[in-house]
Amino acid sequence: MKTGATALILGSLVLITYLPLVLTAPEPLDVPEKLQQAVGRVVVNTTACSVTCGLGYKEETDCLVGPHGLRRDCKSQRLECLTNWICGMLHFTIVHGKEFELSCLSPDILKEGQEAFRFTWKLAQGIISTNDEIFKPFRANSPFLRFKPAYEYNSGTYRCDVQRLKNLKLVKRLYFGLRVLPPNLVNLNFQQSLTENQKLVDEGWEVNLDNESKPHLPVWQKKVTSALGIGIAAGVVGGVLVSIAVCRVLGGTDGNRNLISL
Length: 262
Known about the structure:
By secondary structure, the chain is of the alpha+beta class. The protein has six helices and ten strands.
């Protein structure tokens, strides 16, 4: 009796488990015969955009695809692509009085011709920022900005917008952060900025800059220093002997005079 009840319960659980699968199983799709024979042009391959920002190009291949996935009449074409038109900021630091140039061109724009685009510049003078609210129009219609030469008041952020002339679509925005340093800021005295050990190294001494140990002379200078030391020592000994002899003579003639010992 108990065995029959257990079997009935297990059978019910199995039925409940598989019932949703039976109820949700999709019916076979009945594709019309004419549709199975249809042929259409489908993109079968495409490359990534040639640039990560601004106007770029990609290669795309499409084919006529027929029954059983057969491909024929494939064609490849070069198409424009625009992943992102905001291209970030480039930073430059130059010295007052130097010539400098900013360029808003890219290889893909040059291939098509810069005549097909409109270039607009704006300036946030004296600061480095991408806040578009603080930019003011800057008189320039060329893809280049040339400084001949650059002065300190030229420092700031320059923004270049590139638009297509045929529809004025914005295809690129690039920021240039420019710093122009005064000449007295870069004409530093190299010798004054060196430490004592660094100055000794510059003069030819062997110095361990890691542990700030005492300087050591090169081998050829060590020999010269030793020879000079010997000569000086000999001179000092001779001088001391002469001084002692003179003191004794003076002491014999005038015993009341005080002598200074060396």
